């Protein structure tokens, strides 16, 4: 029964795999795994293995593509071979999940019992059902440099801002609880569209690509900071 439950869970996972943010990657249905070639997730859309979540390193952790689902995975997670129908049933490199699904073989779990942390939510899955998601730049404290990443306010966790290094990462880099923050507009500086989140001595400065995107983020963050989690609540407050 446990094996059946696990297989069904994997099937549901594959049904929602690869939403193709900022790509033309179509979703690959479970029954199509191995039967047709997948669209590969681009290397520059991930900074960590899409299976084990370990960061990629140019020296010790190379990027590989699973030939069945198209995920970008590390060498350890792609150290499996399975016959793929679309390639004349020749053995191809696949990830562990696809290997189990395609062959029916079991694999000893070396991380069994490890619970998912609060940051272990895939960017593609979260973004597909988000209140707002896009690329932003988060400036450092002196305002001269910063980090560009993929920012998401999930629909099922609307009081938290999740920050990913890339839009297809399977784990968030960090998160910011939005409740209680103030959203501040800032004048345009050197063609940069700036705004801030501030609470006590904690201040975050963001840069949006356009003024329209900046206004959308300010509105979404202000709503979350006020604890408004549904549009109905926002409309009721406006009526009052």
Automatic annotation (TrEMBL):
- Domain of life of the native organism: Eukaryota
The record's subcellular location field reads: Cytoplasm, Cytoskeleton
Instruction: Mention any one GO cellular component term assigned to this protein in its UniProt record.
Output: cytoskeleton
Q: Which PROSITE patterns match?
A: PH_DOMAIN, ZF_FYVE
The family database entries (Gene3D superfamilies) matched by this protein are listed as: Pleckstrin-homology domain (PH domain)/Phosphotyrosine-binding domain (PTB), Zinc/RING finger domain, C3HC4 (zinc finger)
Q: Which residues form the PH domain?
A: 129-226
Q: Enumerate the UniProt keywords alphabetically.
A: Cytoplasm, Cytoskeleton, Guanine-nucleotide releasing factor, Metal-binding, Phosphoprotein, Repeat, Zinc, Zinc-finger
FYVE-type domain residues = 43-103
Protein name per Swiss-Prot or TrEMBL: FGD2 protein
Task: Write down the species.
Answer: Urocynchramus pylzowi
Lineage of the native species? Eukaryota, Metazoa, Chordata, Craniata, Vertebrata
Which gene specifies this protein's sequence?
A: Fgd2_1
């Amino acid at each position: 029964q446990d094996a059946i439950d696990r297989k069904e869970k994997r099937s549901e996972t594959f049904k929602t795999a690869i939403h193709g943010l900022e790509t033309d990657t179509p979703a690959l249905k479970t029954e199509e795994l191995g039967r047709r070639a997948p669209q590969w997730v681009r290397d520059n859309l991930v900074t960590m293995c899409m299976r084990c979540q370990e960061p990629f390193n140019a020296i010790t952790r190379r990027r590989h593509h699973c030939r069945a689902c198209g995920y970008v995975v590390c060498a350890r997670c792609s150290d499996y071979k399975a016959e793929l129908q679309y390639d004349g049933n020749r053995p191809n490199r696949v990830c562990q999940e696809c290997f189990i699904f395609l062959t029916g073989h079991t694999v000893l779990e070396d991380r069994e019992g490890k619970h998912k942390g609060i940051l272990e939510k895939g960017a593609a899955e979260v973004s597909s059902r988000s209140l707002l998601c896009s690329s932003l730049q988060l400036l450092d404290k002196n305002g001269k440099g910063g980090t560009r990443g993929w920012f998401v306010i999930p629909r099922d966790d609307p009081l938290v801002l999740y920050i990913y290094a890339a839009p297809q990462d399977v784990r968030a880099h960090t998160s910011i609880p939005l409740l209680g923050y103030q959203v501040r507009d800032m004048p345009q500086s050197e063609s940069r569209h700036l705004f801030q989140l501030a609470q006590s001595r904690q201040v975050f400065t963001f840069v949006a690509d356009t003024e329209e995107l900046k206004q959308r983020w300010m509105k979404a963050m202000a709503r979350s900071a006020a604890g408004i989690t549904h549009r109905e609540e926002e409309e009721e407050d406006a009526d009052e």
